[in-house]
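Hi W.,

Here's what went into the run:
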Amino acid sequence: MKRTNRWLLPYDLLLARHGPQHWWPGETPFEVMVGAVLTQNTAWGNVEKAIANLKRADALDCRTILAMADADLAELIRPAGYFNVKAKRLKALCRFLAERGVESAPEALAGQGTSAELRRDLLAVHGIGEETADSILLYALGLASFVVDAYTRRAFGRLGLLCGDEGYGAIQRLFERHVPCDTRLYNEYHALIVRLGKEHCRPRPRCTDCPLNSLCPSAT
DNA sequence: AACCAGGAGACAT
DNA sequence: ATGTCTCATGGT
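Here's what came out:
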């Protein structure tokens, strides 16, 4: 008998219900990279305002950002929150792209190494952690790297597929082992998980006095 | 009026 | 290695 794939079944259900999400919301690979940094622990609506500010100031490119004072850049991205730290992180990203000679065509980064090499190099950039690196690889460069975020942990923890103490890499390996390696699939799956999280998956159980809460991995 | 949002780095233990 | 703090705006 055919064993159903518990790591892929949610994808089928979500896609059937919601259809394709057409991610990442961003017009160019560089805009995707900037958005990936700005959306760290931040609602996407706030990121949109910050990106709109950058566009209005004609500042959505590497050289303009690198030429700007930190305080001026921070002021443009203020709506995205953490504006002082994110200003430095955006500059670090642009510095990295400039060092690679792709400051006017950031998508060309994809031709500079394997997915694993690029991931390693991205992680060495200040302000780029695992989720941001994978978001850039998948959504800006089109490389099949599965993105794990807070919604992923929450939803799949509650499905009983995670026990709660796995690190980022462990969760990513589980997905990459059970889900066929395909950029389009990884793209759509993560987008659908985020939509699920936003609409249906509350951060905490509603029932705070449930007698079984002490058994829940998310109980602290 | 808390609580949360598509995290990551610095720092102490 | 693993935990705790900090960073900050805007919506519910």
